[in-house]
Every structure is written in C-alpha cells, then in structure tokens.
Amino acid sequence: MEIRIGVLHTPKEISLDVDQSADEVQQAVAGALAADDGILWLSDTRGRTVGVPAERIAYVEIETDAGGRKVGFGRS
Q1: pLDDT of residue 38
Q2: Are 35 and 51 in contact (CB under 8 A)?
Q3: What's phi and psi for 52, nearest 5 deg?
Q4: How far, in Å, CA of 34 to CA of 46, rounded?
Q5: H-run or E-run covering 49
Q6: φ, ψ for residue 23 (rounded to 5)?
C-alpha cells in the first residue's frame, strides 16, 4: 500500500510503500495529530523509518488499490 504525505511549505511529498493496513495508518496519523508535540512515524517495506512532525502535515493520502500502478497516458 502506498502512503503519500504532504508537508507544509515543502513542494515535494513524502511517498512510502508500507505493509500496514489503512486502518493502522489512520490510527497512527490520528494519534500523532492528537498529541501536543506529536510525530508521525512510519516504516516502509525497505526498512526506512520516516518521522514527520504532526504540526507540519498538510495531508495524508492512502492508496489501497490492489490492482497495481497504471502506466502511460491513457484514460481509464
């Protein structure tokens, strides 16, 4: 599953492939946002761990499409 995190005042988003379920990621995001000085920690499938201060998170997009990535410029 792919996760994309937008960070305030940063033109690039953080993109991770994770083994966690969508519910687990949503709970991690909610927990980080609820804490006073929360940090969202996620680990990807390659073993990297990324921490984003909750106050800097602009959005979190969870891609659960099991069909795979689309390639090319065709419309679906």
Answers
A1: 93
A2: no
A3: -125, 125
A4: 28
A5: strand 49-53
A6: -65, -40
Q: What class does CATH assign to 2-63?
A: mainly beta
Q: Which residues pair with 39 in a beta bridge?
A: 53
Q: Identify the CA nearest to 40 among candidates 21, 64, 63, 14.
A: 14
Segments of the chain assigned E as strands: 2-7, 14-17, 39-43, 49-53, 57-63
Q: Residue 16 CB: number of other CB atoms within 10 A?
A: 19
Q: Single out the residue of 71, 59, 46, 47 nearest to residue 14, CA to CA.
A: 59
Tokens of 71: 């390639």
Sorted by where each begins, the domain ranges of the chain are 2-63
DSSP state of 3: E
Q: What is the pLDDT of residues 24-60, one digit of tens each?
A: 999 999 999 999 899 999 999 999 999 999 999 999 9
The answer for 57, left when phi > 0, alpha when psi is -120 to 50, beta otherwise, is beta
